[in-house]
Amino acid sequence: MPIIDVHAHVGPWPFHMDTGDAAFNLRLMDRYGIDLQVVSSAEAVVYDAVAGNAALREVLSVHPRLLGYAVVNPNRIEESAEDLRRCLDTGRFVGAKIHTHYPGRLIGSPQLTEAFDLVAEAGVPLLLHTWGPEVALLPQLLASRPRLRIIMGHAGGDAWREAAHAAAACDRLYLEHCRTVTDAGRVAYAREAGVPVERLLFGTDSTLIDPSVSLGVIRDAGFTAAELERVLWHNAADLFGLGALAAARSFP
Questions:
Q1: What pLDDT band is residue 251 in, cutting at 50, 70 and 90?
Q2: DSSP alpha helices (H): ranges in the chain?
Q3: Which pLDDT value is given to residue 252?
């Protein structure tokens, strides 16, 4: 079965772990049968969004199995607006990424709402680092931004219950459950809260976390065969408009 990983990164992190260049991503993808991976630049997330995005443009130009998120820095919105256009113009970036904790701007802050407007205008999905109860604000923020679709990276983290209810309340919120701590029952709770399988996505947080962790969460979620196809690739292909690319890779 094809697999599309919607949450990964390229490049080293300031932590003690085995992370590196795109070749490492590809080795992990091959090990676990991941066909396509949507990545952001680690440098762009933690240090310099523009420089990191530029480096990622070079990586994507030579690695067709990797697609990109352009990192948006909510503290430098005008600079990020120009950079987002540059990235999307390459045709190799399919979305935007915003981390809330590194730039110090949480959901509901004026800077982050301005960044939401920027991504909504661009018309691409947004992978948003979510961690904490402020995820409950997302349905209201999306109500006035009908073009904005948000993947809740880590499905709220420690606030996975609040994230589940937020996603159930808004059909443009998607849950992606990668996390180092695999609390039992997170996926089941989301489904019981009313999140349809069509808005559940597969992500790994690679190369920070080995993909086996997220694959184990999916294995234990009790999906039917048809639901598993949805979660592992079909929903991502629909969200990112990857139908033609999927067909080219002989996806069913």
A1: very low
A2: 22-32, 42-46, 49-60, 77-89, 110-122, 138-143, 160-169, 186-193, 211-219, 225-229, 235-240, 243-248
A3: 42
Tokens at 121, concatenated: 């205008």
Asked if 13 and 208 touch (Cβ cutoff 8 Å), the reply is: yes
Radius of gyration of the chain (CA): 16
- What pTM was estimated for this model as a whole? 0.95
**Inter-CA distances, 57 with 10, 41, 62, 104, 115, Å:** 11, 9, 9, 26, 21
Measure the CA–CA gap between 86 and 93, rounded to whole angstroms.
Answer: 10
Residue whose entry in the numeric block shows the structure tokens 């086996």: 212
To the question of domain 4-248 being in CATH 3.20.20.140, the answer is: yes
Q: Which pair of tokens denotes residue 17?
A: 């772990």
Helix (H, G, I), strand (E, B) or coil at 157: helix
Residues 1-43 pLDDT 10s: 899 999 999 998 777 666 678 999 999 999 999 999 999 999 9
